[in-house]
Each structure stands twice: as structure tokens, then as C-alpha cells.
Amino acid sequence: MKSAHVICGKDNVAVALRDLTAGETAAEVCLAENIPAGHKFARCAIKAGDPVIKYGESVGRATEDIPAGAHVHSHNLKSGLGGPGEYVWQPRATELPAADMPGFMGYRRKDGRVGIRNEVWIIPTVGCVNAIARTVESRCAHMAVGSVERIVAYNHPYGCSQLSEDHEMTRRFLCALINHPNAGAVLVLGLGCENNHIAGMQEQLGAWDPDRVAFLNCQDTEDELLAAETIMERLCAHAASAKREPCAASDLVIGLKCGGSDGFSGISANPLLGRLSDRIIAAGGSAILTEVPEMFGAEHLLMARCRNAETFRDTVEMINSFKSYFMRYGEGVDENPSPGNKAGGITTLEEKALGCTQKGGTAPVADVLAYADAVRRPGLSLLYAPGNDLVASCALAAGGAQMVLFTTGRGTPFGCPVPTVKISSNTPLYEKKRRWIDFDAGPLLSGADPECMAESFAEYILSVASGRETLSEELPKTDLAIFKDGVTL
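The structure assignment produced for this chain is given below.
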């Protein structure tokens, strides 16, 4: 196994693939000090103020002279990011050639969309009825029979005392989940006096299938639990009529996410997702990339892949809007990476972004989605949402992703409303956390063939789409993390 990896020939740093010791030679450089696994060291002398190059791009500037073989990290490297910028479209997007990909067994809904799970969801309009929703879930658990895979009551603290945009985001998010194809039926549970009242939800939804979606205001009935059970009997019977049937890869919508990243994420796990994303898109399917703050520093690469000038302008607006959001609260746009990222070898947001966006593969950017917008066209869509793991993963679900593919170098057990596949960037994490990690991308660090790994990963993903449970599905997934930006009354 190599001791270090050079991602791009023009890089002036290399990544240690294991803990390295001063005096060792790695990447043809004699190391001046110990280098932890996943961290960077200089391949040549770098002068103070010069760019540090990784992935063939600048990841910041040296804050002091760095000799060859020295550790490059927070003590001598600083981000160069600034506020909203002006961008020029320099298109370099090329269409992926069409390609076949095996299909899967899914649930085709009346609206033509496809689910990969057949669950019955209880969605509160307001946090005041969370406990009622959980009680209904418990009392109706025996109704999950036949093709109904589980009954889930979701919780959130919102739906009242929210103003303007926050109120709108909560309503749109919840309506997006009501429409999600992984839900065979949905009970919308309201209180009756909340801002996010059922009538407003119905207006937001527009048309809905009354066989699949039902509403109950708890204040309107003497015994809300009995009323809910009666409705749930009907909804579960409707959901149980659904059966898995052959579906094409073009019916897939995958959400792309990373969290607890390390210095290997942009070398192994994220590029693996990029290859899978390209395969699904080439077969006519869709992928959603979010975590807008973790595009800062790599946004120019995504902009160059925009399919047309309108998509480019929408991408610029998305990036600058999120930078302005940071600055509105007096935060620097480079307020990232996390302590865990840094411990794993990631120093600056540019470096994190260049690794993060690897998940989007090479496909053209087909569309830009507002928060809680559902995918509108096949291909790669960019979604407005933050980098926070729970908020971003829930946003991907609201965007129509049937599953979220989540890469990690540090490990995390959480799940979101849709199956959440955990992919480790390194094998030691996979071996340590067998109850968290579904797929190991670590062999890519030791020379595994990328295309063979992508083929194996695609087979696994199709098995999940056909009903194979992910490890996160063994844990509760009941909490909804909704994006919030504003005053709570």
C-alpha cells in the first residue's frame, strides 16, 4: 500500500494514507515531521502567501514559509474565501452518454413517481401534537401488515409562532414530505389553533389523493386517539394495496450528502458517490447535491457545468444568497470545517468543498432547487439547504430523494425520513462501526479499481431500492430537522 496520495499532478501537497513518521520518504519527499493519517504535507517548499494546491485548486494560502515535508494544516494554512462575488459563466459542461443500468423493485404511485419504501407516515402540522402523533404510532403499530413496512410518527418543534419565511419553509417542507413517494399513506395531524393550520396545508398541497392523505384536527373531536385510529385503519388498508413492481433506474432519485468528513472523504467515498451519480444520471435518473456552504470554494467548478445561462444565474444566486445569510448574522463565510473535520485532516472550507462536491460526479448541472422544492427534471440538481447533517438530509428527502447516500470519515448513526446509506471513507472506521456503516469505500485508498468498486456499490444501492434495509433504518428516524432563519414569537 502506498504511504501517501497525490490527487493531482499540480498539487503542492500530498495526503498521508497512514500515520507517517519524520524521516520517512513519502510521495518522493523526506518528511520533516510526523504526519497523521488523512493530513497533508508539503511536496515542495511553499512560501508565505502562496496558494496551497490540492485537487488541482487553491485550498487557501500559506501563512508562513512551509518547507518540503512539513505538516500543512491550521497552523500554517488559512482560507482565502470572501463574501458574495461576481462570476462569469465559462461553460465546460458535457452531456453524459446514455447508458443502461439495471432496474429495481419499487412502488409506483398514482402520480407516476416511485417509492422504495411503503410506509404510513403521521405528520404533525405543529409541535404541540407530537405526543399525540407518537401515541397514535404506538397504538396503530399492529396495522403495519402486508406490504406496509412500518408506521412512523414524525416530530418537529415548529408550526406556530413563526413569521414570514420560516412559516413558509415549514409549511412547504411538511407538504413535500406528505407528497413523498416512500409514503404509501399519510395522516396529517393538526391541533386546530396553530399558524400552520390544516386549511393552509391543504392550500399549499393543492390537489391530493383522499385515499392516500387524511387530515385530523385534534381540537375538533372529543377523542382524537380513537378518531386517528379509525382513519389509520383506512390509510393502512390503502397502503397495503401497493405491491413492488419492476422499475427502471431512470425512476431513481438519490440525495448526496457527507458528514463527519476526513482527509480521505474527497479521495475515496465522495468520488465513489460521484461515479454512482453519473451512472444513474446516464440511465435517465436524478441526483440532488446540497450543503450550499460546503460548495464555497468549489462553486466555480459547478457553475462551469451548468447546462445553460439560466441555470448558471440560479447557481450564482444560490451561492451569493447563502453567503449573505452568513454575513447577515455577522458570521464569516469560512466558518467551517468542524473540529472533527480538522482532526481528520481537513483545514479550510475550500478544501472541504473541493472534496464535498466530488459527490456530484461530472454530469451537467440540470437545475437549481429552492428549499423544499421537489426534483423537476432528470440529471444533477443543486438544492438550497445548509450543511448541517440533519437539516440537509431532511431537505434532500423533501426534495424527493428516495434515499440519502451519506459519506463519512468519522462516523455517524443518524437517519432521516428516507433510507440513509452510510459509506465510510476508510476501512478502520468500517471495521470499528459495523452497526453504523453500510458500505466501505476504504479499499480505494489501497488501490482497488474505481470502476469495480462503483459496480459493486451500484448493486448494493439497487438492493436498497428493492427493499434491503440500511443500518440506520434499525434506529428511530422520527425527528424532522427543518431549516429556520428568523424570529420565533
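Interim note for the steering committee: DSSP finds twelve helices and 23 strands in the chain. The chain has a mean pLDDT of 96.
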